[in-house]
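During the second half of the funding period, the structural biology subgroup turned its attention to how the target accommodates small molecules. The most pressing case was guanosine-5'-monophosphate, which had performed well in the primary screen but for which no bound structure existed. We therefore specified the complex as follows and requested a full 3D prediction, including the ligand pose.
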Amino acid sequence: MEEPELSYSRAFKQITKSASSSLPLAKILNSVAKSVAKALRATGCSIMLLSPQKKHLDIVAAYGLSGMYLKKGVLDVNKSLHEVMEGKTIAIFNAKEDKRTQYPQAADMEGVSSILATPIFQSGEVAGQIRVYTREPRRYSHTEKDFISTVANIISVVLEKAELQQALEDRYRENMSKSRKLTEIPKLPPSSLRPSTFGHPSEEEFARLLDFYRIEWLYEPRSFPLQWQGDRVTEMFTPDFYLPELDLYIELTTLKQSLITEKNRKVRRLRELYPDINIKLLTKNDYLKLLAKYGYGSRGATKVRGIDRVLFSHTQIQRRVKALAKQISKDYAGKKLVLVGILKGVICFMSDIMQYISIPLDIDFMAISYYGNNGETTVKITKNLDINITGLDVLMVEDIVDTGMTLNYVLGHLASQGPSSLRVCTLLDKRVRRLVNVPLHYVGFEIPDEFVVGYGLDFHGEYRNLPFIGVLSPEFVDEAQK
Ligand code: 5GP
């Protein structure tokens, strides 16, 4: 047998050669996985990266492992060898019995006994890991652990190089197209650089759409056995995407009707065998409709024309609104609350937050208008409250606080009616633009100085019905105001 030093030096030679090549990232990482498995005389090796929301691991390269094992299920950072994400190199002697293994049964079926895993760092934080698998139970030496950590460091450099390259390409593309087409789906930002090898261009397009809307996705994380002959699996189904936030599998069909029928059969069988699994089959028609709704694809309408990027997805907004409502319910426990909003921008926020607040409450609305007088803009109340708020606990609910002028005026008006208490809850706080210092007790998100629309907020009477909050491109705003 070859001396270990010799096999390490052979592996480093091969790894650094592919790392410095111009091969696509997925190919480089696959070649690294192969060299590592060979040098350590292991059964297999996999390389995983953290998903953008940092909750899951995506297998981006592998060698020597079966498709069934690689697609055994979603890898949760808290359940799958979690100590690696804390920056430790760990060796599992018996994967079938060790509590740190998320899928012990899959390891058993694959015949995996021992696992060696080490973190891959990027900018001082754990960004992924490399794992080595053996059939025989094995204890790893310091030299073997050092070897794998050094490979992890080389992978960090490879990832940084790929990010840099992607950033340069993006800049080049932007310079090339002077007027950026608004209907073009933006490229993945370098931070979410994920070398998934998509089976079909429509899958890549769908992944970009999910990225744009900040919906987390994992590509083909799980294969479901559908039929067996004895112990042998004779039919499997691997849905294209899993969306963890929605706990939903998605299978895209952009193919012929005859193939859709076959996929429908598989989805039906999957639902029978795995009743807890949520899966949706997205036909070409559904898919085009979805793209069109967001202004993309061949049927792209003009609905979301001008949106530069999504700042907060629907799920992110809901999560934050729930947290605010919980705090408010706690702070006002035992009191009867009146929520006051200014029409119309606040309607989505008001209707969501009032449903999440668990104490008794009433709501009321005011309307205001701005009018110019000798170059000065003045606020005027065009609809007053219906309720008499004297002696009541009033919480002013705002969509966005910008300069603070409007809120300052309205708070003065409400305070003059003698409420028992008066506080402010705003979903968005554009603090950098503040001119009048108004006290904000509850803030959803602090945002930069950009014009945002959606979730009730409009631009010239449009965009209020978007389920997310997006930034309007400044060129689009300038153009519309000409
Ligand atoms: P302020 O008086 O704080 O400057 O402005 C408050 C009002 O300006 C908000 O209630 C909202 O109607 C409008 N506003 C400020 N910033 C934005 C923004 O980014 N998007 C939208 N749609 N409206 C905004």
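Two results from this model are relevant to the next phase. The chain has three domains: 4-174, 195-303, 312-480. The first strand starts at residue 44 and ends at 50.
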